[in-house]
């Protein structure tokens, strides 16, 4: 009796699963992606470079202590408090580990990836 009930439940579940898998409606066609515009490579001999310093405006945030008590191995390794390094600020307010990128304004120009 129990086996029959189990088979009936499995059969109903399989029927529901199979009926939910497909649709008889025709899938809507997606519009084609716009064609890429021709790009103009830049000659490295005529390109420039940008350098600078990123400075923090205002007081530097205080470093937070990182809790090591959740992992005994870390707690043994670090006998002195370990502080977060989210902000690395130099003597004159310069920030370390900063990435600056050009978001817009390149037009159709392309550049080789630095090696």
What does this structure look like?
The protein has a domain at 52-107. By secondary structure, the chain is of the alpha+beta class. The protein has helices at residues 2-21, 72-77; strands at residues 40-41, 65-66, 82-83, 109-110. The mean pLDDT is 79. The chain has two helices and four strands, in the order αββαββ. The longest helix is centred in the first third of the chain and has 20 residues, at 2-21. It is 23% helix and 7% strand. It has a two-stranded parallel sheet. The chain has a two-stranded antiparallel sheet with strand order 2-3.
The major pleated sheet works out as:
2 strands, parallel
The helix/strand series, from N terminus to C terminus, equals: HEEHEE
- What gyration radius follows from the Cα positions, in whole Å? 30 Å
Placed side by side, the strands forming the largest sheet appear as 1-4
The total of helices stands at 2
Mean pLDDT: 79
Protein structure class? alpha+beta
Mass-distribution shape: flat
Query: Helix coverage percent of residues?
Result: 10-25%
β-strand amount: 5-15%
Counted beta strands: 4
In angstroms, what separates the terminal alpha carbons?
A: 72 Å
Which parts are unreliable, with pLDDT below 50 for 5 consecutive residues or more? Answer: none
List the helices and strands and how they pair.
Elements: H1 2-21, E1 40-41, E2 65-66, H2 72-77, E3 82-83, E4 109-110
Parallel strand pairs: 1-4
Antiparallel strand pairs: 2-3
Provide keyphrases for this structure.
4 strands, single chain, alpha+beta, two-stranded antiparallel ribbon, 115 residues
């Amino acid at each position: 009796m129990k086996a029959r009930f189990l088979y009936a439940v499995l059969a109903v579940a399989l029927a529901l699963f199979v009926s939910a898998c497909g649709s008889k409606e025709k899938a809507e066609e997606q519009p084609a992606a716009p064609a890429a515009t021709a790009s103009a490579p830049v000659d490295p001999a005529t390109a420039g470079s940008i350098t600078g310093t990123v400075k923090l405006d205002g007081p530097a945030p205080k470093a937070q202590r990182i809790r090591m008590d959740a992992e005994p191995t870390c707690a043994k390794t670090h006998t002195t408090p370990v502080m977060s390094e989210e902000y690395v600020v130099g003597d004159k307010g310069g920030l370390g580990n900063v990435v600056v990128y050009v978001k817009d304004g390149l037009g159709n120009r392309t550049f080789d990836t630095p090696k």
